[in-house]
Structures are given as structure tokens and as C-alpha cells.
Design goal:
single chain, disordered N terminus, Butyryl-Coa Dehydrogenase, subunit A, domain 1, Butyryl-CoA Dehydrogenase, subunit A, domain 3, globular
């Protein structure tokens, strides 16, 4: 049957079906409409603010925005409803992140809790831990930092030396050591920490995943000044810091498994929203090249074209990976990280070539209100392209450096001999 008679009117079912938005489009329209109606008034000035290298921008206002999202049910979309989430489908989550990026909405302050720790607790945590911590992530009343890297264990997570031992009462872990590159630890209330809980253990063995309150006498948070003049990440020192014995995710010694599970969540659907942001950067840079004449240079034009091709390849790879078209064991997460990190670094270098000589000029103005901003000790602001160039140097390091990603592909996927380690 291709048509039906309704009250003396014949309706073509094919035409009717095409006129009714499918569920995905309806969801996209709902997200788009809500963002359009809410990114107004007190939130207009935070549009596009707080991205990588600019996490210091309007932090309190972006925190208020995150809580506004929560009140409307737009946080923790993919979490089960019994844990405060929306129970959104995989497709809906992709749509949300893409529409959010297209709206140029501000960078979220709750990413580590919502996208990393929350799903990890749902997968590996106890029911008591879920009841204690998930509500504070959903309503954005508790923020989290990630305690992975150390001065002697940057991208090599298995080399951590921070230790944790149960005290004589058996009620608390006593933690000693140092973490570094700890993003936003200066504003977080909690940190998830990888620590060595079995004395004498090595590499992946004897590690545990602990939930540690940051506001205590045994913890010192020291901001690290970056090339950009700001200090979004920190050193964190643990000197007999404590956390309750039951605030361990998984069993003692299972920390490597839990940590690796968390890293898989890190490379989830939000990466597609990230790529929408990359596309916007490319478009703005291409427009700048047209305005200042740089696009007339054949080399610049060629680099812009290659960047667009790279963006297209990166998007296709992410869609295949997230859709499950790439089987496990292929190093897909490492391939994805190499693709976007190197592409973004190259875009920063291209930006300097397009801007030309002015890119070498230092900051010319101060940031309004920055005199009280601990994350910006120099109180200066680079322009967007200088900041892009400087910060994208870090893209190839954090989240697993290029060298580590290539080793994973070589050793675990291709079966090549392991790299010699001293």
C-alpha cells in the first residue's frame, strides 16, 4: 500500500513520511532550539570561550552555564536514567555534541567528571560510590581533576610511583607522591588518582584507582605557568594525604584496568563535537588568508587544501570507530589520537604562516579583571592564532604522546619487537 484515504483525502504515504522529521532530526531540532533560546542574556559573552589554552576565561560564568544545562537535563546524556542521566542513544549523544559545537557554546567545565569519571564509576564502581558521587557530577556541584601523569611518568602511566598504603586502622589510604599536568586541579574538589598500593610492584601490577578529596592539609596544588601565560594545569603534591578505604574503584591492584577503561571513555562521542570546532577554526583561518592575501600564495593555498582533506579523513575515521566498524585490537584509539593531534598542531603552524610577521609580536593588552586571576599570573592575552599555535604543541603530548601511540600500534597491533626500556 502506497496511499491511504483519510476523510475523502488521499494521502501518499511516501510523501507523508518524508514530511515528518525522523527521531534524530527531531532531537537535533530540540537541541538547536534550546541552545538558541538559552545562549542569550547573561550567557552571550561566554559563547566560544574557555577552549583549550583558554580554560581560564570566564570560569565562574561557564560553571553557571553548566549548571543551567543540568537544570534543563542536558548533562550526562548517555548515562542511565537511574543514575541521573537522560538515557540518550549513541546517535543522540553525537547529535548533541555536534549541535553544541555548531552553536559555539562555551567549553564545559565538567568534562572530566561527566565524560570520564562518571562512566567509569557506572562501569566499575560500587553502588555506594555511584550514590555518593554521580549526583554531584550531574548537577555540577563537585568538579574533578585527573591524577595520572607524574614527573617521571608522563605518558608512561605504568611507571607511576605515587604510593598509597592503608593506615594501621585500615580505614584510610595514606597517599604520598606527586602528580603533574593536572588540569583544573585548582578549581576541583576531587581528584581520581592512580597510585601504587602494592609495595615493590612494577609496571601495570599493583596499581589502584583512588578517589581523593583535594581540600585537605596533606595536598598542595601549585599552578604551572604555560607559554600562553596562563596556568590551567598544576603540580599536585601528596604528603600523607588521606582518603577513605572504600574510595577505591575496583579491587586493590585493578587500577590499570580501571584507568584504561576511563581512557576509552575519554575518546568517545565528544570527539565529533571537537571536530566541529576544528572545522570552524579552519574556516576562520581560510577566511583570514583570503582577506590578507595569504591565500594567493600557492604554498599556503596547498596547505589549506591539505588541512581540509585531513579534517575530512579525521571525521570519517571517527565515525567508523564510534560506529564500531573497526574491530578491537586495531589500535583505533591510538590512530584517532595521532590523526587529530598532528592535524591540529599543523593547523597552528599554518596559522602563523598566514598571519605572517605580526604573529611574532607579543601581547599588546591586558585581560580585563585578570589581576585577581591565579591562572593568568602575567595578566596578558595572546591573540587567538598565537594561542592556537602555542597550545597545539601540547596536543601531541597530553592524552598519550605521539611516541606512546606509535609504540602501541607497533607493538600491540603490528606485533613488532618492543622498544628497549632502561
Amino acid at each position: 500500500m502506497t496511499s491511504i484515504n483519510l476523510a475523502d483525502r488521499t494521502v501518499d504515504l511516501g510523501e507523508w513520511a518524508r514530511s515528518v522529521p525522523d527521531a534524530a532530526e527531531q532531537f537535533a531540532v530540540a537541541v538547536r532550539d534550546w541552545l538558541e533560546k538559552n545562549l542569550v542574556g547573561d550567557f552571550v559573552h561566554v559563547k566560544g570561550r574557555g577552549g583549550p589554552g583558554s580554560e581560564h576565561e570566564f570560569f565562574d560564568d561557564r560553571l553557571a552555564w553548566d549548571r543551567h544545562l543540568s537544570a534543563a537535563g542536558w548533562t550526562c546524556l548517555g548515562w542511565p536514567t537511574r543514575y541521573g542521566g537522560r538515557g540518550a542513544t549513541f546517535e543522540q549523544r553525537i547529535i548533541f555534541h555536534q549541535e553544541y559545537a555548531r552553536a559555539n557554546a562555551p567549553a564545559r567545565v565538567n568534562h572530566l567528571g561527566e565524560e570520564l569519571l562518571g562512566p567509569t564509576l557506572i562501569e566499575f564502581g560500587t553502588e555506594e560510590q555511584k550514590r555518593r558521587f554521580l549526583p554531584g557530577i550531574v548537577d555540577v556541584t563537585e568538579l574533578w581533576a585527573q591524577g595520572y601523569s607524574e614527573p617521571g611518568a608522563g605518558s608512561d602511566l605504568a611507571a607511576v610511583s605515587t604510593s598509597a598504603q592503608l593506615d594501621d586502622s585500615g580505614k584510610h589510604w595514606a597517599i604520598n607522591g606527586q602528580k603533574v599536568w593536572t588540569s583544573l586541579a585548582h578549581v576541583a574538589q576531587w581528584c581520581f588518582v592512580i597510585a601504587r598500593t602494592e609495595s615493590g610492584s612494577q609496571r601495570h601490577q599493583g596499581l589502584s584507582f583512588l578517589l581523593v578529596p583535594l581540600d585537605q592539609p596533606g595536598i598542595t596544588v601549585r599552578p604551572i605557568q604555560q607559554f600562553t601565560g596562563t596556568s590551567e594545569f598544576n603540580e599536585v603534591f601528596f604528603d600523607d594525604a588521606v582518603t577513605d578505604a572504600d574510595l577505591i574503584v575496583g579491587a586493590p591492584g585493578d587500577g590499570w584496568k580501571v584507568a584504561m577503561g576511563l581512557l576509552q571513555f575519554e575518546r568517545g562521542v565528544s570527539t565529533l563535537g571537537q571536530q566541529v570546532g576544528f572545522e570552524r577554526e579552519w574556516q576562520e583561518l581560510a577566511e583570514l588568508a583570503r582577506r590578507n592575501g595569504a591565500a594567493d600564495n600557492p604554498e599556503i593555498a596547498s596547505r589549506l587544501t591539505r588541512a581540509w582533506i585531513g579534517l575530512t579523513v579525521m571525521r570519517a575515521n571517527a565515525q567508523r570507530t564510534l560506529a564500531g566498524d573497526i574491530v578491537s585490537g586495531t589500535g583505533a584509539a591510538s590512530v584517532s589520537k595521532l590523526l587529530w593531534a598532528n592535524w591540529h598542531r599543523d593547523l597552528g603552524e599554518l596559522a602563523m604562516a598566514i598571519v605572517g610577521a605580526p604573529s611574532l609580536l607579543g601581547p599588546t593588552h591586558t585581560v580585563e579583571g585578570a589581576e585577581n586571576d591565579i591562572t593568568n599570573p602575567n595578566h596578558v592575552e595572546l591573540d587567538e592564532w598565537q594561542r592556537l599555535f602555542l597550545f597545539t604543541r601540547a596536543d601531541t603530548i597530553y592524552g598519550g604522546s605521539n611516541e606512546v601511540q606509535r609504540n602501541i600500534i607497533a607493538e600491540r597491533v603490528l606485533g613488532l619487537p618492543r622498544e628497549a626500556r632502561s
